[in-house]
Amino acid sequence: MSSPDPARTALIVGSTGLSGSTLTRLLLSQGWTVYGLARRAQPDLPGLIPLNADLLQPESVQTALAGVRPSHVFLTSWARQDTEEQNIAVNSAMVRHVLNALRPHGSVRHAALVTGLKHYLGPFEAYAQGAQLPVTPLREDLPRLDLPNFYYAQEDELYAAAAQDGFSWSVHRPHTLIGQAVGNAMNLGTTLAAYASLCRETGRPFQFPGSAAQWNGLSDVTDARILAQQMLWAAETEAAHDTAFNVVNGDVFRWSWLWGRLADWFGVEAAGFDGTVRPMQDSLAGMEGAWRDLAGRYGLAEPDLHRLASAWHTDLDLSRPIEVMTDMTRSRQLGFSDYQSTEASFFDLFAQLEQQRLIPPRR
């Protein structure tokens, strides 16, 4: 058995989340030594070294990382709070606590941070609102909005630690992430899968919940596998160091085109935009019992609808008053060429959810 390569030793912060778990599997497949830090790390993923810590408690983080000497740190964790002021305090602290705990070891060569398009569109409290909305496609050189934003606070913690400790950094800004993770707070793909499954069981149409701008306009999304590939590429590509990157699949689509295809996969009737925004939160309100019954009938692994569906975030994405596309020129010019069909992203996810008994089987 070969010895671990100290230059390919990763610490993934948030290893149980959507982006973190996908990156974990990629790095393990590439022969990296991988530590996974989370409140409840995955002990059953072959090859992963799980670490448990409360990221808001510096002593807990220091204890968990006392014997860890990573060459690369991937920061993929965040915690939603009631206000943006609280989001800033909590999420910047998590980044700071991790990097502070690693500082005495001096092992870190590169640190990557996952944020997202709220960098351009504003925080939850003012998302895609007001006079500051940028012209799309969104480009990395757009200035920060004059609004409080926890993504900015996280970036500033990363920049300060990199300057102090002498490591390189990268920032990765995905659009809506598509991939499998239970309990994820921003999970449009699994939300739609749970909703479509309920529509099929109850005979309801699969109703588009969003706005005319989203239904008719161009959009893109980010497969979690593409995000993982870009993070690995940036970590290993010197020309990509100390740079922020957008990351999306590489294709564009209209929900008016895609919605019927998603409905066909589940065998349900598609209902498009009819002139009224019909929030997903309303459609799923009171459906917890129906999901528990469905889970019992089919032996599903997760009977709690809210562990699968994040209706609030799906509404945030699909009710935006503007079409949203993302420019990837910066990473393309530096050699990142990975591409993913968005339709396949959804279908791959649905098949995975079905296989893992997270949604009922198609009849």
TrEMBL record:
Give the organism the record lists: Deinococcus aquaticus
Q: Which SUPFAM superfamilies match?
A: NAD(P)-binding Rossmann-fold domains
The PRISE-like Rossmann-fold domain covers: 72-356
The answer to whether the entry has keyword Transcription is no
Q: Which UniProt keywords apply?
A: Plasmid
Q: What is this protein called?
A: SDR family oxidoreductase
The record's PANTHER family line, in alphabetical order, gives: 3-OXO-DELTA(4,5)-STEROID 5-BETA-REDUCTASE (PTHR32487)
Q: Which InterPro entries match?
A: NAD(P)-bd_dom_sf, PRISE-like_Rossmann-fold
